[in-house]
Amino acid sequence: MASLNFSFTSSIPSCTTRNYSSGRTTNTSIQPTASLITTHQSNSAPQQTTTRRCECYDLYKHVVPFADAWSWQKSILEDRKTLIGNNEDGSDTVIMLQHHPVYTLGTGSSENYLNFDIKDPPLPLYQTERGGEVTYHGPGQLVMYPIMNLRYHKMDLHWYLRALEEVVIQVLSSVFTLKASRVTGLTGVWVGDKKLAAIGIRVSRWLTYHGLALNVCTDLSPFNRIVPCGIKDRGVGSIKGLLSDSCSVSNDGELIDIAHESLLKEFCEVFQVELCHQPISSLLEFPKSRQ
Question: Per residue in 120-164, pLDDT tens?
């Protein structure tokens, strides 16, 4: 058990927002279908010499359908590919939100890790193109979707996964005084034998999407219907469940607020980016993602 460390102070770099005036049609309920996107290899890697701009769509207090967030990512991805082709890719992107209850499968997920009939799931079930096995998303879990051009960071997928883990490890240790760690051979972040953060990514032409999910005050019971991430000998946990009774946080909303601020701060520090907050409404201006 642990208690909160309120020595944390916010130092999230920020900049002005980007204006959208393309007149794109809004669509609040976009239904994507899964597609495999292969990684394009290149020997040309720009070197990041200064802090890189990162456009931030911060919906962390919003509970968003998985299909909408998935489509936003793929639309931004296609937009970024066009910018790269024109040598105009000047920023990364990150989306922060919570999801309505949903199960998602990775590219090669096995039905053996589902404790229900795949034809009659208890919650919406999506087959995605990310790596990893089945996981659950729901309210009380903060989800971070970075869309980053690794040519400006490091063209190494193992480095990127470890960097995402480091973001969470720093959050758990610096604010919540929870001793978090990695597990050799596995992806994610644990406290003891409880997994608090799941990570699953996809990379196309060195652009990342999908990302990480951190259980803050999540209802963990839906995890009982699956074998989370295909790991049978370890359980899942949440920040709330591991904090001591003496914790002074009065409600789940406050806990989400603290975790959210720390996630963005550590993300900026680990990846050396400067957040440029964008209006949430501009996400709806992206067209349906091209499959």
Answer: 999 999 999 999 999 999 999 999 999 999 999 999 999 999 999
Is 247 within the bounds of a domain? Answer: yes
The structure tokens listed for 117 are 């009939």
Catalytic residues: 229
Cβ contacts of residue 85 below 8 Å, gap of 6+? none
Answer whether 232's CB lies under 8 Å from 110's CB. Answer: no
Residues 6+ apart with CB under 8 A from 22: 285
User: In sequence order, which residues have a C-beta less than 8 Å from that of residue 259 and are 6 or more positions away?
Assistant: 142, 171, 175, 176, 214, 216, 239
pLDDT of 22 higher than 80: no
Is residue 228 a contact partner of residue 64, using CB atoms and an 8 Å limit? no
Length, in residues, of the chain: 291
Number of domains present in the structure of the chain: 1
DSSP labels, 34-90:
----PPPP-S--PPP-SPEEEEEEEEEEEEE-HHHHHHHHHHHHHHHHHHHHTT---
Tokens linked to 227: 């074998």
Q: Read off the DSSP letter of residue 260.
A: H
Q: What is the CATH number of the domain that holds 206?
A: 3.30.930.10
Mean pLDDT of the chain: 85
Query: What domain range is 239 assigned to?
Result: 50-284
Distance CA(136)–CA(214), nearest Å, equals: 11
